[in-house]
Design brief:
This protein has ten helices and 22 strands. The longest helix has 19 residues. The N terminus is likely disordered. The chain folds into two domains: about 300 residues, Alpha/Beta hydrolase fold, catalytic domain (Rossmann fold, 3-Layer(aba) Sandwich), CATH 3.40.50; about 80 residues, Immunoglobulin-like (Sandwich). The strands form four sheets. It has a nine-stranded mixed sheet with strand order 2-3-4-6-5-9-10-11-12, with helices on both faces. Helix 5 crosses helix 6.
C-alpha cells in the first residue's frame, strides 16, 4: 500500500504587479532533516574530466528510485590541481525537455566550482547524442504534464513530479556537500525554466545554499502562465490544492537564500506579471533582478548570462568582490521616471524600457530610450500615455546588466 505522506526518505502612481505571500500556505511536504543526509550513490564514470553517477532519490511507485547526474570540478578537469583545495559548489537544475547537461557542469567547473547536473525525469542523456535520452532502471517520474499536474487528483503525493524534483535537487546538494573537495559553506543553486521554478522552491526549503538564480521560472502560475489550460482542467479546488503544495508562491515568503531573478519581457511560459509577484514575495533576504527585452527561452541562452556567475560569486564572497548594481522601483512624477541605483563599478549605460499597448502581457512590443545618470539617480521622460509596464536597466563597465523591478500602471 502506498503511503499518503512523505515519510523520511520515502520522501508612486504606479504600482508593481505584486501580491502578498499566499495566505495559509500549506506546510512544506519536504523533510529537510531527512533530505539533508547524503544519499547513497554509485560512480558510473569515476575518472576523466567529466564524472557520471547515480544517487538514490525519493521512492517512485513504491520502490527506491535512482537519479543520474554529471559531476565536474577544477580537480576533475585538471588532475594537476592541488588535491587539498576546496571548491565552492553549485547544483544545476534543468528545465522541461532537458536533462543532465555535461556542458553546463563543465562551464561551472571552468569557473572554479564543483558542479552537479542531474536529470529529473528518470532518464539520462546518451553519450553519442546528448539530445537523446534513455530511461534508466528505477528512474523516477517523467516530466510530462500528467506527472506535474494530474497527480494532485489523488491523496497519494509520493509519485508527484514536483515533490521529486525539489527533493532530488536537495539530495543532490546533500551529496555535493559530502564530497571532500567541496567547500560546505559556499554552495549555490540555479535552474532554467521548470528548473527555475524548482530553484524557487529549493531555495525556500534548503537554507544551506548561499545563493540562488532562477531563470525564467517563477510562481503564481495559476494566475498567468502557459499552463492556464492545465488549471482549467483541474478546476478551482484542485488548483488551490496544487498551488498551496507546489506553486513557488506558497514557499518564497520563507526564502532566506539571496536570490537573483532573471527573465525576459516576452517569455512565453512565465509572464512578467507572475514573475514580479514572485520577486515581491521574497522579503527575508537580499534579492536582485535582470529583465531583458525579448530574452530567448532555452537552456544554453538561459545559463549564458555573465550576471549569473557574478551574483553567485558575490554571495559566496568570491571573485573580485565587485557586486552587481541594484536599481530601485521606478517612480513617476512631474512627467519623469526616476530610480536610485547602487553600484560598485562605474555604470556606463542606463535605459528606460516601456511596453506599447496590447493584450497579453508577454506579447507586447517594447521601446527603449537612454536614461541619464546623475548622483546615482537614473532619469527618463515618462512613457507614452498608453503604456502600462516599464522598468530601467543599468549596465556597468563589465557589461553586466541588472534592472529595476517592473512597474505596472
Amino acid at each position: 500500500m502506498r503511503t499518503r505522506l512523505l515519510l523520511p526518505l520515502l520522501l508612486g502612481i504606479v504600482t508593481l504587479a505584486t501580491s502578498p505571500p499566499r495566505a495559509n500556505a500549506a506546510e512544506s511536504p519536504w523533510d529537510l532533516a531527512q533530505l539533508s543526509k547524503a544519499p547513497a550513490h554509485e560512480w558510473l564514470v569515476k575518472d576523466g574530466p567529466m564524472r557520471a553517477l547515480t544517487y538514490t532519490g525519493l521512492p517512485f511507485q513504491g520502490k527506491p528510485s535512482q537519479v543520474f547526474a554529471y559531476y565536474a570540478s577544477p580537480a576533475t578537469l585538471s588532475p594537476a590541481t592541488e588535491a587539498t583545495k576546496k571548491y565552492p559548489g553549485v547544483v544545476l537544475i534543468h528545465g522541461g525537455g532537458g536533462t543532465a547537461f555535461k556542458a553546463w557542469a563543465e562551464l561551472w567547473a571552468k569557473r572554479g566550482y564543483a558542479a552537479i547536473a542531474m536529470d529529473l525525469s528518470g532518464m539520462r542523456p546518451e553519450e553519442a547524442d546528448p539530445n537523446k535520452r534513455t530511461r534508466i532502471p528505477d528512474g523516477g517520474p517523467d516530466q510530462g504534464h500528467p506527472a506535474k499536474f494530474d497527480t494532485i487528483r489523488t491523496e497519494d503525493i509520493t509519485d508527484d513530479w514536483p515533490l521529486h524534483a525539489v527533493a532530488n535537487s536537495i539530495l543532490a546538494h546533500s551529496l555535493l556537500l559530502s564530497f571532500p573537495e567541496v567547500d560546505k559553506d559556499r554552495t549555490a543553486v540555479t535552474g532554467i525554466s521548470w528548473g527555475g521554478y524548482t530553484t524557487c522552491i529549493v531555495a525556500s526549503v534548503d537554507s544551506r545554499f548561499k545563493a540562488a538564480v532562477p531563470v525564467y521560472g517563477c510562481g503564481f502560475l495559476e494566475q498567468n502562465s502557459c499552463w492556464l489550460g492545465e488549471f482549467t482542467k483541474l478546476g478551482p479546488d484542485l488548483t488551490k490544492k496544487w498551488v498551496e503544495r507546489y506553486d513557488p508562491s506558497s514557499h518564497l515568503s520563507r526564502c532566506t537564500v539571496p536570490i537573483f531573478f532573471m527573465n525576459g519581457t516576452n517569455d512565453f511560459a512565465y509572464p512578467l506579471d507572475s514573475y514580479m509577484k514572485s520577486y515581491d514575495a521574497v522579503s527575508k533576504t537580499a534579492k536582485n533582478i535582470r529583465v531583458q527585452i525579448k530574452m530567448p527561452h532555452g537552456h544554453g541562452v538561459g545559463w549564458e548570462p555573465k550576471e549569473i556567475g557574478l551574483w553567485v560569486d558575490q554571495q559566496l564572497g568570491l571573485g573580485d568582490g565587485k557586486a552587481l548594481a541594484t536599481c530601485t522601483a521606478p517612480v513617476l512624477a512631474d512627467g519623469k521616471v526616476t530610480a536610485k541605483i547602487t553600484h560598485s563599478l562605474p555604470v556606463k549605460a542606463a535605459a528606460f524600457n516601456y511596453a506599447l499597448p496590447g493584450e497579453a502581457v508577454n506579447k507586447r512590443e517594447w521601446k527603449s530610450v537612454p536614461a541619464t545618470i546623475e548622483n546615482d539617480v537614473v532619469t527618463a521622460p515618462a512613457a507614452e500615455a498608453e503604456s502600462d509596464m516599464w522598468f530601467f536597466t543599468v549596465t556597468d563597465e563589465r557589461d553586466a546588466m541588472v534592472s529595476s523591478p517592473v512597474a505596472f500602471k
